[in-house]
Amino acid sequence: MTANKLKSSQLLALACGVVNMRIFKINCPECNAPAIIRKTEWKNKQLADLYCACSEVECGHTFVFNATYSHTLSPSGLTGNKLVKFLLERLKPDERQYALDLLQGQAR
Can you give the pTM of this predicted structure? Predict the structure, then answer.
């Protein structure tokens, strides 16, 4: 009976209807077998070195994979206020007042 037990992550996946979660998968560049990420070393907020090991016992290749941020496809809803603040700070006082009037529906 213990051989047929589901691991908790498998049970959770079945309960939530998730069968194939999106997981960053790296293959060995030598034999193309799945690799295991052993360690992540962040260089900065947008660049990391992933220390990987091949899961194929006979290969045994270890390597470093660079993961980097490229560009935004859709801007975050959390940073919109920063953009508005940035733009308003660069307006002259009369332009700022005009923008405020526009927002309040009082612009002429």
Answer: 0.55
The partner residues of 51 in beta bridges, in order of sequence, read: 39, 64
> Domain coordinates of the chain in residue numbers?
24-71, 73-108
Residue 65, CA distances (Å) to 24, 25, 72, 78, 98 in order? 12, 11, 22, 30, 51
Under 8 Å CB-to-CB from 56, ≥6 apart: which residues?
A: 28, 31, 33
DSSP E strands in the chain: the ranges are 35-44, 47-54, 62-68
Instruction: Assess if CATH 1.10.150 describes domain 24-71.
Output: no
What is the pLDDT tens value at each position of the chain, 108 positions in all? 455 554 555 544 554 455 555 688 899 999 999 999 999 999 999 999 999 999 999 999 999 999 999 998 887 777 777 888 888 889 999 999 898 888 888 765
- What is the spatial distance between Cα 40 and Cα 24, in angstroms, rounded to a whole number? 13
